[in-house]
Design goal:
heterodimer, A: mainly alpha, MetI-like fold, 8 helices, about 0% strand, flat, B: mainly alpha, about 80% helix
C-alpha cells in the first residue's frame, strides 16, 4: 500500500488545522485581553463575572467546550457548522488561558510607569494604550507564543466534532488503508514539523526580548 | 438526576486514568531529566530530541497511535491501557522539563558547598540538590496534575468510558430531551474535582514556602 497518494489529503487537513489555529489564536488573544482587563477591573460587577467565565474556560476540558458548541447550542436554536463550532470552542478556551498570561504581563509593568504617566498629565486611556500595554504584552510574548503552539496541537480535538482537519483526515486515511501505525506516525511527525521549529522560534524570541529588556 | 448519575459513572475512570498517567509521569520523568542534565553531549542531545518529539505530537495522535497502531504478535493495548500509557509518556516528558527547571534555579553555591564539604557527586545530588528541587517543582507539578484531569477526557476518543464518554453516550441515547445538560453536568464534575485539588495545592505550596 502506497501512502504517498494520501499525502495531499493530510496536507489539506493541515491547512484546516492551521486556519483553526489562526482564528482561535487571533480572536482568542483579543478576547483574552478584554478578559484580562475585566478581571483587573475595580468594579466588582465587571470583575466577578469575568473571573467566573475565565475559571470556567480554564477549568473544563476543551473537548467538553467543543461538544457544548457543537451538540449543545443547536438545542437552544443556534446551529453551527462543524468548523464554526470548533472555531468558537477553541477561541473560548484560548481566550480563557491567554487572559491569565496577559494579566500577569500587564501586572509585571512597574507601578512607577503609571505614576510617571500621571505626572506627565497623560490621560488614563493614553497611559494604558501607549505605556502599559506595549510593555505588558512584551513580557507576555514568550508565554503567548507557547500557548499558540499548544492551540495548534489542540485543534486536533476538532476531530471529535468531525471537522476535516489533519487528525480527521488521517483517521479516514487509516480506515481506508489499514496502515494505522504508519498513518498516525506520519500524522504525528507533521504536527512535530510545525510545533518543534515554532518552539525553537519562541525560545529565540524569548532570548532576544530578555536581552533588549531592562 | 439520571443525567448526573450517568455522567458520574464516568468519574472513576477519569480519576484512574489521571492518577496512573501522573504516576508514570512522576517516575518516568526522573530518568528523562537525568538525560537532559547529562554531562555527555550525545545523551543530552538525544534526550532533548526525544522530549521535543513526545511533546510535539498532540495527545489524541498518541492515543490513536498506541490504540490502533501498536501490536506485538497477539498483544494489543485495550483502550484503557493505551490511554494510561499515552498520557503517561506525555506526562513524563513534561514533568522531566519541570524537574530540570527546578534544578536550574537552585543556587550554584549549593553544589559548590557540597563539594567543599567533600560530598560525592551522587550524595550531593540525592541528599542536597534533589530535596530542594522537589520543593521548587511542586507548584508546577500540581498545576500539571490539574491539566491532566482535563486531558484525560481525550481518552474518550478511543472509547475509555470516562466522564466525557458517559456524557456523549447519554446525549446520543436521549436526543430529544438531553440537549446541553449532560455536557454541563460533565463540566460541573470537572470543576468539582479540580477546584478542591487547586485549593489543596495552594495550601501545600504556601506551607512549603514558609518552611524555607
Amino acid at each position: 500500500m502506497d501512502l504517498v497518494q494520501y499525502f495531499p489529503r493530510l496536507l489539506d487537513g493541515l491547512g484546516v488545522s492551521l486556519q483553526l489555529t489562526a482564528i482561535s489564536v487571533v480572536c482568542g488573544y483579543l478576547i483574552g485581553l478584554l478578559f484580562a482587563l475585566g478581571a483587573a477591573s475595580i468594579r466588582p460587577w465587571l470583575r466577578w463575572p469575568t473571573l467566573v467565565v475565565i475559571e470556567i474556560g480554564r477549568g473544563i476540558p476543551a473537548l467538553v467546550v467543543l461538544y457544548i458548541a457543537y451538540y449543545g447550542l443547536p438545542s437552544i436554536g443556534i446551529l453551527l457548522e462543524n468548523f464554526t463550532a470548533a472555531a468558537f470552542g477553541l477561541t473560548f478556551t484560548v481566550a480563557a488561558y491567554s487572559s491569565e498570561t496577559i494579566r500577569a504581563g500587564l501586572q509585571s509593568v512597574d507601578n512607577a510607569q503609571r505614576e510617571a504617566s500621571a505626572a506627565l498629565g497623560l490621560s488614563p486611556l493614553t497611559t494604558f494604550v501607549r505605556i502599559i500595554l506595549p510593555q505588558g504584552t512584551r513580557s507576555a510574548v514568550p508565554a503567548l507564543m507557547g500557548l499558540a503552539i499548544q492551540s495548534f496541537q489542540g485543534t486536533s480535538l476538532a476531530y471529535s466534532i468531525s471537522v476535516n482537519e489533519l487528525m480527521s483526515q488521517s483517521y479516514q486515511v487509516s480506515t481506508v488503508t489499514f496502515e494505522y501505525l504508519k498513518v498516525y506516525a506520519i500524522t504525528g511527525l507533521i504536527y512535530v514539523a510545525i510545533a518543534v521549529p515554532a518552539t525553537w522560534l519562541s525560545m529565540l524570541v524569548e532570548r532576544r526580548l530578555a536581552r533588549g529588556h531592562v | 438526576m439520571t443525567v448526573l448519575l450517568a455522567v458520574l459513572a464516568g468519574l472513576p475512570l477519569t480519576l484512574l486514568v489521571t492518577v496512573c498517567a501522573f504516576a508514570i509521569g512522576l517516575v518516568g520523568g526522573v530518568p528523562i531529566m537525568l538525560g537532559l542534565r547529562s554531562r555527555i553531549f550525545p545523551v543530552r542531545i538525544a534526550t532533548r530530541f526525544l522530549v521535543d518529539l513526545i511533546r510535539g505530537v498532540p495527545t489524541i495522535v498518541w492515543l490513536f497511535l498506541l490504540y490502533f497502531g501498536f501490536s506485538f504478535g497477539n498483544f494489543r493495548f485495550n483502550s484503557l491501557g493505551a490511554a494510561v500509557l499515552g498520557l503517561g509518556i506525555i506526562s513524563a516528558a513534561y514533568l522531566a522539563e519541570m524537574y530540570r527547571g527546578a534544578f536550574l534555579v537552585l543556587a550554584k553555591g549549593q553544589s559548590e558547598a557540597a563539594q567543599a564539604l567533600g560530598f560525592g557527586r551522587r550524595t550531593t545530588f540525592v541528599r542536597i540538590l534533589a530535596p530542594q528541587a522537589i520543593r521548587t517543582a511542586l507548584p508546577s507539578l500540581t498545576s500539571y496534575l490539574l491539566a491532566l484531569v482535563k486531558d484525560s477526557s481525550i481518552a474518550s476518543t478511543i472509547g475509555v468510558t470516562e466522564i466525557v464518554f458517559a456524557a456523549t453516550t447519554f446525549a446520543r441515547q436521549n436526543p430529544e430531551s438531553a440537549g446541553l445538560t449532560p455536557f454541563f453536568f460533565a463540566a460541573g464534575v470537572y470543576l468539582a474535582v479540580s477546584i478542591p485539588l487547586a485549593v489543596v495545592a495552594r495550601r501545600l505550596d504556601t506551607r512549603l514556602r514558609r518552611s524555607f
